[in-house]
Specification:
The complex is a heterodimer of chains A (about 120) and B (about 110). Chain A is mainly β and about 120 residues long. Chain A contains no helices and eleven strands. Chain A has strands at about 5, 10-15, 20-25, 30-35, 45-50, 55, 65, 75-80, 85-95, 110, 115. In chain A, strands 2, 4, 5, 6, 9, 10 and 11 form a seven-stranded mixed beta sheet that branches. In chain A, strands 1-3-8-7 form a four-stranded antiparallel beta sheet, with no helix packed on it. The chains are: A mainly beta (about 120), B mainly beta (about 110).
């Protein structure tokens, strides 16, 4: 079964602690993305990676960090510097970010991780 | 600047009727658009996409219409079913090749 997985589904942390959210895909996709979704809001891009060992900041990267050491994995760390970390976090992957195929833009999303920081 | 937005945050439709979800975009240079469906507690799922050189594209029970003159995108769902209840997002490809999502419209199906 090909797909994208995120774990855990629910995560609780105390304020001041760093926390790492897992994202794994076995779709052989080059590009991976992290989004944040707040209640009643759309998706906001945190970081994205087009290829292994390379990643770019999205619109709201402050207080977050990522790594892309393997093609199938793109973990997101929510640091204590993130002022309002409680949210629903979504990871996605796509074949690429452009190129010859229109469908290379289609993003496949994981089930999400709901992070609550108190 | 670039923006993707939706006219209505919530839409209620009788089961069996057709649903029309609207989306406005501001960047006339956008050339690729996608509709996603997000069910409660899940990640978004791709529904249908359209390139700017088309004005209509049909899928199974869904049709996307693109009006570049007024920068408007719509998603039509035929014979709406209870399983269509979800939040629907439109998204556009920006100048940097990133996909920008709108805020979403919640679709309620009335029995």
């Amino acid at each position: 079964d090909g797909g994208i997985t995120q774990s855990p589904k629910y995560l609780f942390r105390k304020e001041g602690q760093n926390v790492t959210l897992s994202c794994e895909q076995n779709l052989n996709h080059d590009a991976m993305y992290w989004y944040r979704q707040d209640p009643g809001q759309g998706l906001r891009l945190i970081y994205y990676s087009q290829i292994v060992n390379d990643f770019q900041k999205g619109d709201i990267a402050e207080g977050y960090s990522v790594s892309r050491e393997k093609k199938e994995s793109f973990p997101l760390t929510v640091t204590s510097a993130q002022k309002n970390p409680t949210a629903f976090y979504l990871c996605a992957s796509s074949i690429g970010t452009g190129g010859l195929y229109v469908r290379s833009y289609e993003q496949y999303f994981g089930p999400g991780t709901r992070l609550t920081v108190t | 600047g670039e923006s993707v937005g939706l006219h209505l945050p919530t839409l209620s439709v009788q089961e069996g009727d057709n649903s029309i979800i609207n989306c406005a975009y501001s960047n006339s240079a956008s050339d690729y658009f996608i509709w996603y469906k997000q069910e409660s507690g899940k990640g978004p799922q791709f529904i249908i996409d359209i390139r700017s050189n088309m004005d209509k594209r049909q899928g199974q029970r869904v049709t996307v219409l693109l009006n570049k003159t007024v920068k408007h995108l719509s998603l039509q769902i035929a014979a709406t079913q209870p399983g269509d209840s979800a939040v629907y997002f439109c998204a556009e490809r920006d100048r940097d090749d990133k996909i920008i999502f709108g805020k979403g419209t919640r679709l309620h199906i009335l029995p």
